[in-house]
Amino acid sequence: MKAFDEIDAIASSLQALVKVEPSSYPLISNVNMEELISAAKQELERRGIDVGGVSKEAIVRGEAEGAGGLLSLVIRRALYKRVKGSLPPDAPAFPCPVCGLYPIAGVMKRVKGAIFSMDVVELHCLCGYSTTVEQFHCPVCGNKDKQAFDLYVAGDITYRACIKCGHVIGIAKEEVEGEKLPIAIAYSISRHGWISRSA
Ligand SMILES: [Zn+2]
Ligand SMILES: [Zn+2]
After folding, report:
1. Which of 118, 137, 154, 198 is the S-S candidate for 133 at Cβ 3.0 to 4.6 Å?
2. Which ligand is nearest to the CA of 140?
């Protein structure tokens, strides 16, 4: 995915601009957003992508669409790159401590316990942040009842919709695309009209 490399290149060039004060979460609510938005816009325009008008609030909430969505993605990844490895271990996992979204993508992992092996899901946020949860665990409402999820299979991805709150997560069997996975899944979920507005 060439577009992903472009997005990441822009995010890398922006990360030095991020002034973050880790006083409360999500960090996206505590950064110099106006400055980041205008720098990200410039970078996108240099590549021929005209973002047009998009509100800071829409970006913080992750609701910007079209080219605005691209801007939101670039800024989220820049934030994550800036704070990667320095988040305190007690930072809350949901919503994302970096960018405030709920994860929509995961990778199934098998971990060895003392007696049994166990399947867990490594959840990935669009910004790059990841955290591991039990196999059936809705990050939005906390539902852990295996029976309370609807499943749809499309290609190599299993989509799990939480019956209690409607949140959808696409889960891959193995890490085929690494950090690109949530972006591919976000695209697929929006294409299928499975967008979750629950938060
Ligand atoms: Zn995030
Ligand atoms: Zn739920």
Report:
1. 137
2. 2
pTM of the model: 0.86
DSSP result, 155-190: TTEEEEEETTT--EEEEESS-SSGGGHHHHHHHHHH
In a domain, 198, yes or no: no
Kindly state whether residue 90 falls inside one of the protein's structural domains. Answer: no
Ligand 2: distance of its center to the CA of 164 in Å? 5
Same domain, 58 and 109: no
User: What is the CA(120)–ligand 2 centre distance, in A?
Assistant: 17
Residue 74 has pLDDT above 70, yes or no: yes
Count of domains forming the chain: 2
Instruction: Report the pLDDT value the prediction gives residue 101, as an integer from 0 to 100.
Output: 95
Domain presence at residue 29:
yes
- Lateral strand order in the sheet of 130-134: 130-134, 117-124, 105-112, 168-172, 157-162, 149-154
Specify the long-range contacts of residues 47-56, CB closer than 8 Å, at least 24 apart.
47/6, 47/10
Ligand nearest, relative to CA of residue 131: 1
Host domain of residue 7: 2-83
pLDDT at position 129: 94
Q: How confident is the model at residue 89 (pLDDT cuts 50, 70, 90)?
A: confident
Distance 145 CA to ligand 2 centre (A): 10
| Ligand 1 midpoint to CA 139 (Å) | 13
Ligand 2 centre distance from Cα of residue 122 (Å): 17
